[in-house]
Amino acid sequence: MTILDLLKPRAGLRVLISGGASGIGAVIAEAFLEAEASVYVCDIDAEAVARAAGRHPRLFAGVADVADPVAVERVIDAANAALGGLDVLVNNAGIAGPTGGVDAITPEQWQQTVTTNLNSQHSFLRKAVPLLKATSDNPTIIAMSSVAGRLGYAYRTPYAATKWAIVGLVKSLAIELGPDDIRVNAILPGVVEGPRMDRVIAARADERGIGFDAMKDEYLSKISLRRMVTAEDVAAMALFLASPAGRNVSGQAISVDGNVEYL
């Protein structure tokens, strides 16, 4: 087997991706399908799920609100039935949460962000880890954090708090699950181009009282490479982590961000 062979995930991997019918999750799903994996995605967006379900014969999809632990249990059961087991869990689902000063963020906004971004990851892990322990085929957990999981992020405290917590979760689980040969890593995307980032920039521009273009330029000025990353950049890292080439990479928080210097 050559180094190039090691860089490709094994054909037939069974992959579950939360929040996988749109955005970064959908691009990750497409990347795994190109690598000949079988993929189950769940998403709260019923229309996106319907579009995904008919797109590929190895792509299965279901509607679920990941903030509901019972819904997550149903997803795990459905994925197990459709895929015949599980080799890779991508804990991707999350929301941007509110933008505002900490004194203006309501308890309901805070709780919604924590429940969706952090508690949902535990809901998936609790049910998926036994399935991952049952496979010997390079079992892998990939958790989606953010560059806001390594840097402070003013006016975005609920989001940043959850993303820092995900890094701690990953590093702890890598130790806990290592003896079972399960690798656990976090991907920390930076400023990812697309509609969601445009909404975040617009909200922060309003908070700061400046124009959208000025706010966008400020974001780019904080990135060493002076450019946003793409969802494809993030998907490529997910494929690497699930490939034989990543078999000794665990407990890591890996930034895909062009080196964001500060937020």
From TrEMBL:
Species the sequence originates in: Cupriavidus pampae
Q: Which SUPFAM superfamilies match?
A: NAD(P)-binding Rossmann-fold domains
Q: Which domain of life is it from?
A: Bacteria
Which Enzyme Commission numbers does its entry carry? 1.1.1.385
Protein name from the UniProt record: Dihydroanticapsin 7-dehydrogenase
CDD domains the UniProt entry points to: SDR_c (cd05233)
Q: Say which family it is in.
A: Belongs to the short-chain dehydrogenases/reductases (SDR) family.
The yes or no answer to whether the keyword rRNA-binding is present is no
* Enzyme category, top tier: oxidoreductase
Q: Recall the GO molecular function terms of this protein's record.
A: oxidoreductase activity
Tell me which UniProt keywords the record has, alphabetically.
Oxidoreductase
